[in-house]
Specification:
The complex is a heterodimer of chains A (305) and B (251). Chain A has 305 residues and is of the alpha/beta class. Chain A is built from 11 helices and 13 strands. Classes of the chains: A alpha/beta (305), B mainly alpha (251).
């Protein structure tokens, strides 16, 4: 796959504050690429430099083979942008916003079909101020997609939404990718990144720490696995200790065992052992590290710090 | 390409007109308030020039006061809109589209000038009905003078809009700057009798030249006698516009 966005050695400072420090990354055609990190890490600044909205202090950027500053007009026709926390006129109606945006581009998509697909058709005549948070975000997506861009930028799209609305947005973004549009998004929600992104880049204090698919990063940085099960059988620990460390916890006559080990085969090994030894199991679950654990390990602190 | 640009410009202008009309308070303050002010004051002082009120040394023309208030209201409303749009990221969102910065702001100027004309028409209609005989002014000439004045004050409004930190300050700052401009404009008190430094300040303010030009058009001496004021309005417009392109903040 070809890179549609190529950033090399990007640097940007505001006064004495270094916002972005020597960031290099590539976004491939047709993927959902997520820039993840805590608030203030430099995600938005990086994205806005790529869009041509901000002028970098150093480094080079290429988007669809164009220079975001020099070819700004040409690029605007081919990218869709959703700025973080940018609103619309309070009293503009949904159809008016869509109509206005349609008038700005030479080639546009069928607006009715787009609103239908985004679940906004019943809200065509509603004023912007009366929309729910999720509906507003879906309208922003509609405006960013109206001219069928090749790359769409979504900055913190689901911040402040309830879990249900968030899931609906995830499904929409996956749909955008499946129609062939490359998606470049930022988020500080690790669950969102893990579920949605084909590849992620972790950024902190303006520096890029790691890039890869979510599962690659988990496998590389957090190979630990744990199996937790309850059993009445005695001597479970002796039969399991070859697999990993075993912890026992007794509560109300029930014994809970936690077996910790590493690697992709670990869970299978535990299951095989249980079957082989004929251990009677009342409850069984696994603990697999997530992107959040990777972030914690790489930065030494949680995302919400 | 050029056609597409015009299409976006008129679409945006029309949308802004509709949005403005949906806000009852702003609509009332901009369109109706100056006319009400005119009727109330004209009843109290007389509709035309009031030459006999010498004990207070006021000799102001209520119609011209109302016309200047229309212009100032347009500017205040524009400042508030710019501040709100900036704060809400609306300006930033529009700038991410192919719309040029000039188009985005130009649409607002056209909307404000349009409502200025409507408000002025209401003023003239009210004047002709309620005070027959005093509205003998050439309406076309008067309208052009008000539009030139509004444009000049609007350009100062863009400079002020850049200085307003948040939308909450837009209205008070507008009032604090714009209404004192009226006080030294010569509408209530002759500019020649102000202290020297204040005369210099007055000469740099568009309201002063607006009042002089409007009075000239009103009493029939016309554009020829006030070409200096008309040119001053144009020069100030150019200067403030040039300044605002340097200091204007989009976010």
């Amino acid at each position: 796959m070809n890179p549609v966005i190529a950033v090399s050695h990007l640097g940007k400072r505001y006064g004495k504050t270094v916002a972005v420090d020597d960031v290099s990354l590539e976004v491939l055609e047709g993927e959902i690429f997520g820039l993840i990190g805590p608030n203030g890490a430099g995600k938005t600044t990086t994205m806005e430099c790529v869009q041509g909205h901000r002028v970098p202090d150093s480094g080079t950027i290429s988007v669809l083979g164009l220079d975001p500053r020099r070819d700004a007009d040409a690029l605007r026709q081919r990218i869709g942008v959703q700025h973080q926390e940018a609103q619309l006129q309070k009293r503009i109606k949904v159809w008016e916003a869509v109509d206005l945006w349609q008038s700005l581009y030479p080639r546009v998509t069928d607006a009715d079909a787009l609103l239908e697909r985004l679940g906004l058709a019943p809200k065509r005549n509603a004023k912007f101020m009366t929309l729910s948070g999720g509906q507003k975000q879906r309208l922003f997506i509609a405006l960013a997609l109206i001219h069928e861009p090749q790359v769409v930028f979504l900055d913190e799209l689901t911040t402040g939404l309830d879990p249900q609305a968030r899931r609906a947005i995830w499904a929409l973004i996956t749909g955008i990718r499946d129609r062939g549009t490359t998606v470049f998004l930022t988020t500080h929600l690790m669950e969102e990144a893990e579920r949605l992104c084909d590849r992620v880049a972790i950024i902190e204090h303006g520096r890029l720490i790691e890039v890869g698919t979510p599962s690659e990063l988990v496998r590389k940085h957090c190979p630990q696995r744990a199996v937790v099960f309850t059993s009445d059988d005695a001597n479970v620990a002796e039969r399991m200790h070859a697999l990993g460390t075993v912890e026992r916890f007794v509560d109300a006559g029930q014994t809970t065992h936690t077996i910790r080990g590493e690697g992709d085969d670990f869970v299978t090994q535990v299951i095989n052992c249980i079957a082989r030894e004929g251990i009677r199991v009342r409850g069984f679950r696994t603990e697999i590290p997530t992107l959040e654990d990777v972030f914690l390990k790489l930065t030494g602190h949680g995302i919400r710090d | 390409m050029r056609l597409a640009f015009l299409r976006g410009f008129w679409k945006l202008t029309w949308v802004e007109v509709k949005i403005f009309a949906r806000e009852p308070m702003g609509f009332f303050a901009t369109l109706i308030m100056p006319v009400v002010l005119f009727i109330v004051l004209a009843r109290a002082f007389g509709a035309g020039r009031a030459p006999s009120a010498t004990d207070l040394d006021v000799s102001f023309n209520t119609a011209i006061l109302a016309a200047v208030v229309i212009a100032i209201n347009a500017v205040q409303s524009l400042m508030a809109i710019i501040a709100i749009y900036r704060e809400g990221g609306i300006l930033k969102r529009l700038r991410a589209t192919p719309l040029s910065p000039v188009t985005i702001l130009g649409a607002h100027v056209v909307v404000k000038l349009g409502f200025t004309v409507v408000s002025l028409a209401l003023l003239v209609l009210a004047g002709r009905r309620l005070f027959p005989g005093v509205m003998q002014v050439n309406v076309f000439s008067f309208t052009v003078a008000v539009l030139l004045s509004t444009l000049s004050i609007l350009s100062l409004g863009f400079v002020l809009a850049s200085l307003v930190p948040t939308s909450r300050f837009a209205q008070p700052l507008g009032a604090v700057v714009l209404y004192p401009m009226l006080a030294v404009s010569g509408l209530f008190y002759p500019v020649e009798r102000l202290p020297g430094w204040l005369q210099v300040v007055a000469a740099l303010l568009p309201t002063t030249h607006a009042v002089a030009l409007l009075q000239g058009v009103w009493d029939g001496s016309g554009w020829g006698a006030h070409w200096l004021n008309a040119s001053a309005l144009a020069v100030l417009f150019a200067a403030y516009t040039a300044l605002s392109t340097r200091v204007f903040r989009w976010e």
